[in-house]
Specification:
The complex is a heterodimer of chains A (114) and B (222). With 114 residues, chain A is α+β, with helices and mostly antiparallel strands. Chain A contains three helices and four strands. In chain B, 48% of the residues are buried. Chain B has five helices and ten strands; from the N terminus they run ββαβββααβαβαβββ. Chain B is of the alpha/beta class and 222 residues long. The chains are: A alpha+beta (114), B alpha/beta (222). Strand 4 of chain A pairs parallel with strand 9 of chain B.
Chain lengths: 114, 222
C-alpha cells in the first residue's frame, strides 16, 4: 500500500473574525496549509475548500510542494510544527493549518516591539 | 497541615508543553510556583484522543465515576468537563482533591483558561460569534461560583483569562463585560504582551509559539 502524500501550501490569505486562530484582530495571516492528497490537483481543491470553509481567501501562494521529511529539517519553530502537523494530517486525513505570522504581529514588529 | 499552592485549568487541548495553559503566571507577568495543576478538558477522552493522537492510560476515580481521568506529565487531567456546568467543575475538583490530597480551596482559588471560544465558530456570523463567546465567559464565571459554593469555599477566587485584547472574537471590553455579568467583582488587564502557542477547538489549526496574548484577571466573589 502506498503511503498518503502530503502537500505544503505556503501562502498569505485574508481572514475574518470567524477564522480559527485569528485571535488578534488581524486582516491577513501568513502560514502553511498541510494537505493530505494523492495528487497535486486533488490537493489544490482541498486547499481551496479548507480556506473557504474557514473564511480565508488566498492573496498569494508562495510555494506548493510535496512534503518530504528529508527536505524539512527541524531547524525552526515553523519546520518543527510542520513535521508535527504532517503526522496529524496523515493520521486524521484532514487539512491542517499553521499560522506563522499575522498582520497584527507584523505591525508590532515594524513598530519595534517584540 | 501545610497548604499546597495549586491551580486549575479549563478547556485544555493538546498535552504538548507549548499548548498547555500556563498556570504559573500571575498579574504583572510575575510568576508563582505551583505544587500541582489540575487540568480539565471539554472533550471526552475518546474525542481528545482522536484530535491529539496521544496514547494515555485512562482511569476512573471513585469520587467521580462518570468522568475519565489520566495522569499526563505527573498532572491529573479530567475529561468531559464543561466549564459552563457547575456539576462538572465540582466533579473535577473532587477528583483533584482525592488525587493530589489537597483541599478544594487549594485547587479552585486560581483558575485559568486560554482563548475560550465557542464551538463551530466558522459556521457563525461575526455578531453571533461574539455573543456566543460573551455568553460562554459569563456562564463559566457563574458555574465556577456555584461549584465553589457547593465545595464550601468562602473566599473570593482568581479567574485568569488569556486572550488578546484585540481579539475580534471577543474584544477586551466585551470580555470584561461578560466576566462582570457572570459575577466578577473586579476585572483588570495586564497589557504586557505574552507569547503563547494556541490551537483551534478542532486541533486542525495552530499558531506558532510566538502568538501574542494578554492576561486578564477577574475576582470572583463567592
Amino acid at each position: 500500500m502506498s503511503k498518503k502524500k502530503v502537500w505544503l501550501y505556503y501562502h498569505k490569505a485574508t481572514v475574518a473574525p470567524q477564522t480559527p486562530v485569528n485571535m488578534d484582530g488581524s486582516e491577513f495571516m501568513i502560514g502553511v496549509s498541510i494537505v493530505p492528497a494523492d495528487t497535486l490537483i486533488e490537493s489544490k481543491d482541498k486547499f481551496e475548500e479548507d480556506l473557504s470553509r474557514n473564511h480565508m481567501s488566498a492573496l498569494e501562494v508562495y510555494n506548493a510542494i510535496e512534503y518530504s521529511p528529508d527536505a524539512i529539517l527541524p531547524d525552526s519553530d515553523l519546520n518543527k510544527q510542520i513535521i508535527k502537523s504532517v503526522e496529524h494530517a496523515i493520521r486524521r486525513d484532514l487539512v491542517h493549518y499553521i499560522c506563522e505570522a499575522t498582520s497584527e504581529s507584523l505591525k508590532n514588529q515594524e513598530d519595534g516591539d517584540n | 497541615m501545610i497548604n499546597k499552592k495549586g491551580a486549575m485549568t479549563l478547556a485544555e487541548g493538546s498535552p504538548d508543553l507549548a499548548y498547555k495553559t500556563d498556570a504559573s503566571i500571575i498579574f504583572n507577568t510575575s510568576r508563582t510556583h505551583r505544587d500541582f495543576v489540575l487540568r480539565t478538558c471539554y472533550d471526552s477522552l475518546e474525542v481528545w484522543k482522536t484530535k491529539h493522537g496521544v496514547p494515555v492510560s485512562a482511569f476512573k476515580m471513585k469520587s467521580i465515576p462518570s468522568k475519565y481521568c489520566a495522569e499526563i506529565d505527573r498532572e491529573l487531567w479530567v475529561f468531559s468537563i464543561d466549564g459552563t456546568n457547575s456539576s462538572d467543575i465540582y466533579a473535577a475538583v473532587r477528583a483533584g482533591m482525592a488525587y493530589y490530597k489537597v483541599s478544594a480551596q487549594e485547587i479552585i482559588s486560581d483558575i485559568y483558561v486560554k482563548n475560550l471560544n465557542a464551538e463551530h465558530e466558522n459556521e457563525m456570523t461575526f455578531k453571533s460569534l461574539v455573543n456566543a463567546n460573551k455568553d460562554l465567559y459569563s456562564k463559566v464565571c457563574v458555574a465556577i461560583i456555584q461549584a465553589a459554593k457547593q465545595l464550601g469555599i468562602k473566599n473570593s477566587l482568581n479567574f485568569y483569562v488569556f486572550s488578546n485584547s484585540k481579539n475580534s472574537k471577543i474584544p477586551k471590553e466585551d470580555l470584561h463585560n461578560a466576566l462582570k455579568s457572570g459575577g466578577a467583582l473586579d476585572v483588570k488587564t495586564d497589557d504586557t504582551r505574552i507569547k503563547q502557542q494556541s490551537q483551534s477547538n478542532d486541533a486542525l489549526r495552530t499558531t506558532l509559539p510566538n502568538a501574542i496574548t494578554h492576561l486578564h484577571w477577574a475576582k470572583l466573589k463567592i
